[in-house]
Amino acid sequence: MGSTYEILAERLARSFERLAPGADPVLRASDRADFQANGVMALAKTLGRPPRDVAVEIVAMNDLDGVAVVEVAGPGFLNITLEPAFLAAQLGALVGDERLGLARAASPKTVVIDYSAPNVAKEMHIGHLRSTVIGDALARTERLAGNHVIARNHVGDWGTPFGMLIEYLLDLGEDRAIAELSIGDLNTFYQGARTAFDADEAFRDRSRARVVLLQGGDPETRRLWHLLVDQSVAYFSQVYAKLDVTLTPRDVVGESFYNDALEGVVADLDALGLLEESDGARCVFPPGFTNRDGERLPLIVQKRDEGFGYAATDLAAVRDRVGRLGANEMLYVVGAPQAQHFAMVFAVARSAGWLPDAVRCEHVAFGSILGPDRKMYKSRSGETVKLVDLLDEAIERADEALVERGTDLEDEARHELATQIARAAIKYADLSTERQRDYVFDLDRMLAFEGDTGPYLQYAHARLRSILRRAGDVELGAAAFTLDNAPSRALALGLLGWPDAVASMLEGAAPHRLCTYLFDLAQRLTAFYEACPVLSAEGAVRVERLALCELAARTLALGLDALGIAAPERM
After folding, report:
1. Which residues have CB under 8 Å from 23's CB, separation 6+?
2. Is the pLDDT at 466 greater than 60, yes or no?
3. How many CA atoms, within 13 angstroms, populate the side-chain half-sphere of residue 77?
4. pLDDT band at 177, cuts 50/70/90?
5. Domain end marker among 82, 106, 124
6. Has residue 97 been placed in a domain?
7. HEC profile for 346-389?
8. Helices within 244-338 (DSSP H only)
């Protein structure tokens, strides 16, 4: 079954195509009718005819006969109101469909999503939040759509700092170092290593020598390096579990994975005639990238000391993801300040033939998290806030709110619910913000049970489930959808918009679009409750309203799950 929007768009396109091949109806939801087609103006300009005459001719074609009533409005807009029988049939088909009209991809894509990317031996902090939750929402939703997702957690696990870290590990002793790292105290370990490096020249010399051993493949040095990486990955996994993020240790493919491919990247770029030397470094100058003075900007592939920079690693990753993994689409969920870097990497990869035009490759950029002073969010002491501390505070405050609301849950169940609410609050506040914008981190607002928040949507779902429990066993498949009042009809139209909300989110790698849809659905529910008593209704009307509640509950649960948010049965 096609979505309601798809059926309308396809049929309207037939009419437009008869007048001009490729003409777009520009179909949109409308406040004046169920939908509005705004493409007549452009079509009329192409044809050199009055827009209203063109609109009347399209209406006369009757391509929406039995589906909708079409009226010409203004200079040539088409107002479209669905026929009651068609609307009821579309809604009825959802009752027995566990995907609620969301079709699986006919030709599943392989989508590689690069997200989170913390550094080994450093704790995850608030700066990792946006990449982690945006990337995870995209991964979940791509899977829901039927695509094959390969997550890539491109951790920083290579480079000169590891000489310092390994030497510090040896100075502490393996057992003590592992004990310190295993409790997640990565910052203390890293700061201890940095202090030793800054204060002791002999330690610095040992650290530099250790880097040479690491890069040369010395077995003992590699063993110690693996200890650091493994302990850090175990810590990352604890953070992901606490935040309910789907990344696993198998998804960790760090900088070190591409190390052996870097010389090949340089050699192949050279063979293609793309490399130039600049100040002793080997660079590519992709067309179209200049500084303020109009001078060409270099992408440094190999530094003057013959070391490799991030560009070489990122180019090797592109080659691997396209060539070995067979990516049809690649999404890099990385902060906006890296926009130019990725644009240059993608441009070089396309010039080299490593990134075919058929492969969508997008930098999914995002803005910053700000404090109340609209500066970068910090703790009261001015330090970067640890991600686990942030979540712990949210859980504690959510638990207090549940106690104040007089919940009758046992302590363990209440804590689990508080954890779900805290995750929802933090994730939804981030995901509901258009990703390229900054936003202010405000736990009071995020944890509110009213307004455009995660807990509000969770409560909307729990309220529906409460109604359905109290209703008892009802055969909802027998519902006859008359939708004889405006709130019922508005709710029905909202429910039918689910597949298109998912498609819109994926098209723009824009989780806020799905958030907007879910919040709008919850508002339609409120209007529905106020106008249409459910449990006190009788007969066929009661069954119809319960069926609408069931569909709404399932839609909210599916939508929240796509965002990585739980939908509690009770709150």
Report:
1. 13, 16, 17, 39, 42, 43, 46
2. yes
3. 13
4. confident
5. 82
6. no
7. HHHHHHCCCCCCCCEEEECCCCCEECCCCCECCCCCCCCCEHHH
8. 262-271, 310-323
- At 528-551, the pLDDT tens digits run 999 999 999 999 999 999 999 999
Q: Are 550 and 466 in contact (CB under 8 A)?
A: no
With beta carbons less than 8 A apart as the criterion, state whether 4 and 102 touch: no
3-state secondary structure of 148: strand
Determine the Cα–Cα distance for residues 339 and 89; give it in Å rounded to an integer: 47
Q: Check whether 317 has a pLDDT greater than 60.
A: yes
- C-alpha to C-alpha distance for 414 and 424, rounded to whole angstroms: 15
Tens digit of each residue's pLDDT (9 = 90 or more) over 366-393: 999 999 888 888 766 667 889 999 999 9
Of 26, 61, 82, at which residue does a domain stop?
82
Question: Containing domain of residue 167, as a range?
Answer: 161-247
What distance separates the 2 farthest-apart alpha carbons in the chain? 88
Q: How many CB atoms lie within 10 A of CB 465?
A: 19
pLDDT per residue as tens digits for the range 216-260: 889 999 999 999 999 999 999 999 999 999 999 999 999 999 999
How buried is 85 (Cβ within 10 angstroms: 0-12 exposed, 13-18 middle, 19+ buried)?
exposed
Token pair of 447 as six digits? 């944890």
Collapsed DSSP state (helix, strand, coil) of residue 184 = coil
Query: How far is it, in rounded angstroms, from Cα 317 to Cα 257?
Result: 9
Long-range contacts of 368-376 (CB under 8 A, 24+ apart): 368/335, 368/438, 369/126, 369/127, 369/129, 369/130, 369/430, 369/438, 369/439, 369/441, 370/438, 370/439, 370/440, 370/441, 371/440, 371/441, 372/440, 372/442, 374/438, 374/440
Average pLDDT of the chain?
A: 93
Range 77-91 average pLDDT? 94
User: How many domains does the chain fold into?
Assistant: 2
What distance in Å separates the CA atoms of residue 69 and residue 116, rounded to the nearest whole number?
48
Residue type, 256: S
Domain-embedded: residue 40: yes
Nearest to 435 by CA among 360, 345, 505, 341: 505
Count other Cβ atoms within 10 Å, centred on residue 131: 21
Distance CA 426, CA 183 (A): 24
pLDDT at 378: 75
Residue 568 lies in a domain: no
- Is residue 443 within 8 A of residue 394, CB to CB? The reply is yes
